Sequence to fold (236 residues):
Amino acid sequence: MRPFLRSFRFSAVALAAAVFCLQPVIDARTVDPAMELQERLQHGEIVVGMKNVGDAKFVTGSLIINEPPAKVWQIIANPYEFKRRISPRMKEFQMMVDKPERSVMRVEMDVMLIPHFNYVVESNYQNGQRIEFHRVDGTLKDFKGTWEVKPLTDGRQTELTYAMYLDPGFFVPQWLMREGVKSELPKTLEAVRKRVVAVVLDKEKIETQTIAAGAIGSEKDAKARHELAGTAVLYK
Fold:
């Protein structure tokens, strides 16, 4: 492979990895027919696929976590968890709006060959079950997606699904961007699963700071942590 093509591909993969607002993977393959999906998930697989939403092609990833949805929510709704435990490329973030149903956050990422890579993302939180997010400003042209938290087995398990569309705003073939996302997404989901289990088993302590939306999953303890965190915190 020519050096400039190799560098181009590496930068696209690094960009896709950085935006996961984020180890080895058990098994990640493209999605089989729907009737086999639950069986694969119950065997511990991380299932990666695609879905069309209008003209946009979203990359999706799903897995099952053997803990209740509230335990999963308190991790995925908390940017401090991603900064300190899940996404090492997140350099810093600033909460601009922090409400139980909505947040706006400025994020700075460490992306190879792209200095000062940052974006502002607005997230909407729906009853501890769904997070919808989209880019409102910054380096990226378009960035949007969802986290979905679905209870299984009478609430003893959680099916977690992440979907994301990314347009960096400069020329990178969409197929190459999607391949970069698909290669990094299982690592992020596996990191989330390991973090949830470690916190539930008390092998690791949950982050002492959270945001208003994170309190939905962890009730009184998260509310207390949110009061300590404040509503506009810059973490470096």
Remarks:
- The first helix runs from residue 3 to 18.
